[in-house]
Design a protein that fits this description.
The protein is of the alpha+beta class. The chain has one domain (about 5-100). The chain contains 2 helices and 4 strands; from the N terminus they run ββββαα. A 4-stranded antiparallel β-sheet has the order 1-2-3-4, with helices on one face. The radius of gyration is 13 Å and the shape is globular.
């Protein structure tokens, strides 16, 4: 398992909010994958955070991709991280630049 799909905006949640997720990295020892997610509220306010999903093996085919998208949408809809992971050095620099 290496590169997993990104889900760029806008992905509607059905309640006036939108989400996106950009793949960041994978920890094959724990079968965890991490995405930088964003949630945009109807008023345009956006929050960004990391989310973690357990992913076993490659994501192949439309059904597996749709399941991954559904699982990411559910996490993004919460508007908060579900991990203590802070990201790679590249992501930490990006977060500092954004003031996060």
């Amino acid at each position: 398992m290496s590169k997993l799909p990104d889900f760029p905006s806008p992905n509607a949640l059905g309640d006036g909010r939108f989400w996106s997720a950009e793949f960041e990295s994978v920890d094959p020892r724990k079968d965890n994958a991490y995405w930088w997610a964003s949630l945009t509220e109807p008023d345009g306010t956006t929050v960004e955070f990391f989310v973690r999903l357990n992913v076993f093996g490659p994501v192949q085919g439309d059904a597996a991709r749709a399941d991954l998208k559904r699982r990411l949408a559910a996490l993004a809809a919460k508007g908060a991280t579900n991990t203590t992971y802070l990201g790679s050095t590249m992501w930490q620099r990006r977060r500092r630049k954004l003031g996060l």
